[in-house]
Amino acid sequence: MMSASWLFSVMLFAISMSATPGPNNVMLTASGALYGYRRTLPHIIGIMLGCLVLFMAIALGLGLVFERFPIVQQVLRVVGALYLLFLAWKIASAPPPAVAHDGDSRPLTLWQAALFQFANPKAWVMGLTLMASFLPQHGPLWLNAFALAVLMELIAFPCISFWAGFGIAISRRLTTARSWRIFNGVMGAMTAACVGFILY
């Protein structure tokens, strides 16, 4: 049985990592503004699912692959950076909600969001720190890792949902096509800026 201090420490870590800005939260803000919470929910669940699988993989030895084969990490960085730039362009060029709902514009799907976590540097930092700092030493490794990853994601859910809600709140003040273009441009630029965290 884990102590109350351990649980409190995990909660503080999860909140501090999940609630702070990063590629996921920037994209959720834009998605919440453009599509609302219900249509953004698959994106949120995809983030949680992708992180859970990533954290489990790290605990079971994926981090060692990066240590032994640095080229794998470099390839993943480049792919992640290119994909993030593509998402930034999609956000920056997205039409206002009335047009987006009727046209081809769509929020990120569950599987797209899940796969992106493997190229998301913040998700890697979270997973490596989580498993190195909080993984219990007694009991089956896979079960401890799964329980810890699930706990992390349960705490993260309201934190990342907040960013989608923040986008919804902002959207109520965007009353013209020009204001939407500016907002989408800023969100796209912020998403593109996250490439710096991947490459450097």
Automatic annotation (TrEMBL):
Its main location: membrane. It is a multi-pass membrane protein. Keywords: Cell membrane, Membrane, Signal, Transmembrane, Transmembrane helix. It holds the Pfam family LysE. It is found in: Cell membrane. It comes from the Bacteria. Residues 1-21 form the signal peptide. The chain crosses the membrane at residues 43-66, 75-92, 141-170, 182-199. PANTHER family: ARGININE EXPORTER PROTEIN ARGO, ARGININE EXPORTER PROTEIN ARGO-RELATED. This is LysE family translocator. It comes from Salinisphaera aquimarina.
